[in-house]
Amino acid sequence: MNPSGGAVGRRVAGIPDPDEHLLEQILSRANLSQAWRQVLANRGAPGVNNMPIDDFIAFAQKHWVEIRSSIFAGTYKPLPVKRVEIPKATGGTRPLGVPAVLDRLIQQAIAQVLFPIFDPGFSETSFGFRKGLSAHDAVYQVRHYIREGYRVAVDADLAKFFDTVEHDVLMNRVSRKVRDKRVLKLIGAYLRAGVMIDGRLHETRKGVPQGGQLSPMLSNILLDELDKELEGRSHRFARYADDFVILVKSRRAGERVMASITQFLEKKLKLKVNQEKSKVAHTNEITFLGFAFSGAKICWSDKAFVRYKQRIKELTGRSWGVSMEYRLFKLAEYLRGWMGYFGKSELYRPIPEIDHWLRRRVRMCYWKQWRYCRTKVRELTKLGTFLRTAISVGLSRKGPWRLSHTLATQSGMTNQWLKDQGLLSVKDLWVNIHYPATAR
Known about the structure:
Blueprint (H helix, E strand, L loop, with lengths): L5 H7 L9 H5 L2 H14 L13 H18 L7 E7 L5 E6 L2 H18 L16 H13 L4 E4 L5 H4 L2 H8 L6 H11 L3 E3 L2 E3 L12 H18 L3 E5 L2 E6 L2 H17 L11 E4 L4 E2 L2 E4 L2 E4 L1 H14 L8 H19 L8 H20 L2 H10 L4 H8 L5 H4 L3 H6 L2 H7 L4 H9 L1 H4 L1
Parallel strand pairs: 1-4
Antiparallel strand pairs: 1-2, 3-7, 3-8, 4-5, 6-7, 9-10, 10-11
Helix pairs in contact: 3-5, 8-10, 13-20, 15-16
């Protein structure tokens, strides 16, 4: 007999046994304490009941006993999630559901118990919402296949995936490993909790609301069947949540794979493929998780870069009435975040030009803030610009953008001076990502 098999093996490995009482494990003091620490660390906005996270402990001390009893009795009803729109890094917005703090706690407690049951069986090419894996890993996986000669991509787009998941199809997959009917009923209650949009309650007969602690795991449970299908056909692919790309060697093979996978998704998983956004194309013509591919190199997509420039223009807008100290703080915050993700781009060529444009935007802000001619002349001469040069530019009637690119402004507001004020260099951030030893 295999000593690692069965209930004993699962207990030794620390994996909850789906044949045992999962709801008791979910509502155990130790699991709830761990879940609360995670919810507290994540913070987040209040849900539909407007209860801030800092008020939850007092609420729980009064009501937890009856809440726990209602969960065991199967009568607990989660609150609807509050729908908000958040900006995407690549532009546009996506809907996000904000559950109430209590429901975030319970969902986190469920996820902590179910994750060890499901995750070991997930595909190695599934990178979304899994410990130790990231979107970058998925992009690197695609690059690996490109380097192996798979230069044609099957880029299938799932239309509004999180809004169109069939509950019955999903729960059928969950029930294959979770046999505690009380847990299944509780998960079903969260799927049907509804969503509040602009103060109006909308039923959720389909879909998994984005933003809840359960939705990442549930999406992986459903799409794991897609992963297994692709593995069974020996396809090269990478998936991050509902974004996936399959790599083949010819367009003819790509067309064949697109047709068969579309049929599988729509017939077997009841998902809808967006035909307008889906395509079979050379890998140089696709984007994946905000990145594009130039040959076998990773680079940020045009759409992501357009959004970057829009945001920089907002942060360096001449009409934004904030101090330069605060403006540079917000710029640094955004640049660190953007480069932390898109700085994985392997193309150095555009980096110097981006830095040059960024410094010019900031010089323009200083020029606008100085406002009066005498102030401009005084500040420039203080920074080392020759008086005659400073006067000629200070008296000019040209706009701040044009004057930010003159000898006078650049000899005064030097690159080093801007750095000393707190302006980050995109080049330095890129080098630190790709050559950390050199950067030190």
